[in-house]
């Protein structure tokens, strides 16, 4: 006989969906998630509450649960941490950072650098930070940072993202349920 753990099923599915890059500030309607997972709303509500306690999502009283919108300080911290990981990987691989290029060149160089790195913990740490930054960077590519056109050094690349952080944080905070169309979330 198969045992069923609806809470565990909901928690696993929601944690995976949030970590796989749901947009920051996205509404997480309990009924839609429960319907998609073919569960009652109780285990979904409990799983959302647990994820809220873990800091992965937010409970906006009276509005529901939302994916976490990072404050400016957190965005800057993540960008600085990613830069530190990139510099460490370059040091370990004995590779010098490119002196100039476009943002696309730097991103390609970073990707190759990390994939060639022999340190699995460094790779895993970088990937965790990069996955947290991915939805934030997606917002930045649209307006705040014109990544395809910019030229400069790796320092300038990260400085542009740091200078864009306050605008990105404001954009994420503006994503309120009244400001976005209601859509069904598939977890």
Radius of gyration over C-alpha positions, nearest whole angstrom: 19 Å
Helix/strand/pairing class, anyone? mainly alpha
Number of helices: 7
Mean pLDDT equals 82
User: Largest sheet, order of strands side by side?
Assistant: 1-3-2
> What kind of sheet is the major sheet?
3 strands, antiparallel
Order of helices and strands: HEHHEEHEHHEH
Distance between the termini: 27 Å
Strand content: 5-15%
pLDDT < 50 runs, ≥5 residues: 144-149, 176-183
Shape: elongated
Number of E-state strands: 5
Helix content: 55-70%
Please summarize what this structure is:
With 187 residues, the chain is mainly alpha-helical. The chain has seven helices and five strands; from the N terminus they run αβααββαβααβα.
Features:
187 residues, mainly alpha, 3-stranded antiparallel sheet, two-stranded antiparallel ribbon, 7 helices, 5 strands
Question: What topology does this entry show?
Answer:
Elements: H1 6-19, E1 27-28, H2 30-37, H3 41-53, E2 57-60, E3 64-67, H4 72-92, E4 101-102, H5 103-116, H6 120-142, E5 151-152, H7 154-174
Antiparallel strand pairs: 1-3, 2-3, 4-5
If you had to describe this structure to a student in words, what would you say it looks like?
Residues 144-149 and 176-183 have low confidence and may be disordered. The longest helix is centred in the last third of the chain and has 23 residues, at 120-142. 61% of the residues lie in helices and 7% in strands. Helix 4 (72-92) crosses helix 6 (120-142). The protein is mainly alpha-helical. The protein has 7 helices and 5 strands.
